[in-house]
Design a protein that fits this description.
408 residues, mainly alpha, 15 helices
């Protein structure tokens, strides 16, 4: 295979997987974006709204751990396609909801669809992208997710403000249907047979032989903890940062939503730079620690409300930038924990920590908003970002004791 052909193949796989990942992240915040409409429509508290998102991510987290085994057994392509179809169905159910229970049902379906993406995506990237471009594949994967997060509230609030929230959800249902059609058209690029098995370095010893033996690796649970804690902080930004900014700075909901969008687009830029930074570094844990230390400091400044409203938007963007830089290094750190032929299982279990954190976060931050503590939202975000540093130290120390290079 020529270099030009391999480049074209890598670019196609990375683009398709990235598009699918962006679709899943678009659905992460469809309920959060519509809080101003759902709250009065169904007479809900912030805690009840947070519980809807908790159901979504709790179902996704449990399903994600199981989906990893299904991916390793039946292949990533079919599992990915089924997840995208379920997302479209969930939007239709939510659009037709007339009770809180029906909203719960839609959130449940969306969680079922979302659970497949990380194990399926990372298995496809590891199987079908050449090692030389794998870091950039991880970077694009993260960027596409952030773009999905950024576009979702912009699209939903724009449509809902001009029509109604049901029409906005019907419009959201068109996205996975279009993406699924495109992936089916290009399904040959995502065929389950790997082009070449990637060389995987195992942190903590030889690859375990049993299907569940990878769970004995200490670093797998350290990475799980990393995702759990960092996701709680992210949940605060996704769900109630905009509402908190309205209370703290007196800005309009439109400007507060723009601050969140700024966070996500800046995070995507950070991930782009982080892909090059991570590819040239042997110390991924240090990159992550510096990034989250900076993010925690910026969150505390926002909580203090000592800057003008326009500066709050800039600070939100800076938080997104520094955390985005850590993204590719994070994925490389986790890739090193995966035994041979167990990529789906490891990424499924580890990334279930992400969904677990995103499930717990809305309850915590919703309770803070119900208690009229908008500054507490950013204080707690900073606290959890500091805790991320300690989990990163644990992963880094374990890797050095095992003698595994950070580029693994």
């Amino acid at each position: 295979m020529t270099d030009k052909t391999l480049l074209r193949q890598d670019a196609q796989v990375i683009s398709l997987v990235g598009l699918a990942h962006g679709t899943s992240h678009f659905y992460h915040v469809i309920l959060a974006a519509l809080i101003p409409w759902l709250k009065p429509e169904f007479h809900l508290s912030y805690a009840q709204l947070g519980l809807l998102m908790t159901v979504f991510f709790a179902v996704s987290g449990v399903g994600q751990a199981m989906a990893g085994f299904v991916v390793d057994r039946f292949g990533a392509r079919a599992v990915l396609f089924s997840g995208i179809a379920l997302l479209g169905l969930s939007a239709l159910v939510l659009a037709g909801a007339h009770s809180y229970a029906q909203l719960m049902a839609g959130a449940f379906l969306a969680g079922c669809g979302n659970c497949v993406f990380h194990p399926a995506d990372y298995t496809l990237l590891n199987q079908r992208v050449s090692r030389a471009r794998l870091t950039h594949g991880f970077s694009v994967h993260g960027i596409s997710g952030n773009i999905g997060w950024a576009l979702s509230p912009l699209f939903l609030t724009f449509v809902a403000a001009r029509t109604d929230w049901r029409t906005a959800l019907l419009g959201a249902a068109l996205l996975p249907l279009g993406v699924l059609a495109l992936l089916l058209w290009n399904r040959h690029a995502l065929r389950p047979d790997p082009v070449a098995a990637p060389a995987v370095v195992i942190v903590g010893g030889p690859a375990p032989a049993g299907a569940l033996d990878f769970l004995r690796l200490k670093v797998v649970w350290m990475c799980f903890g990393f995702f759990l804690i960092s996701a709680v902080a992210l949940a605060g930004i996704q769900t109630f940062a905009a509402t908190s900014l309205v209370s703290l700075y007196g800005m309009s909901l439109q400007w507060a939503t723009s601050a969140y969008t700024c966070f996500m687009f800046a995070s995507a830029v950070g991930m782009l730079y982080g892909g090059f930074l991570g590819a040239g570094s042997r110390h991924h844990d240090r990159i992550i620690m510096l990034a989250f230390a900076g993010a925690a400091l910026l969150a505390l400044v926002l909580a203090a409300a000592v800057v003008p409203a326009w500066m709050a938007i800039v600070l939100m963007g800076l938080i997104g930038l520094v955390t985005g830089i850590a993204g590719p290094s994070r994925d490389l750190m986790i890739r090193g924990a995966a035994p041979a032929n167990a990529t789906g299982r490891v990424f499924g279990v580890v990334y279930s920590g992400l969904d677990s954190g995103l499930a717990l976060g809305p309850l915590l931050f919703g309770a803070l908003m119900d208690a009229n503590h908008p500054a507490g939202v950013f204080v707690c975000i900073a606290l959890f970002q500091v805790l991320v540093i300690f989990t990163t130290i644990g992963v880094g120390n374990n890797s050095r004791v095992a003698g595994v290079p950070k580029t693994a």
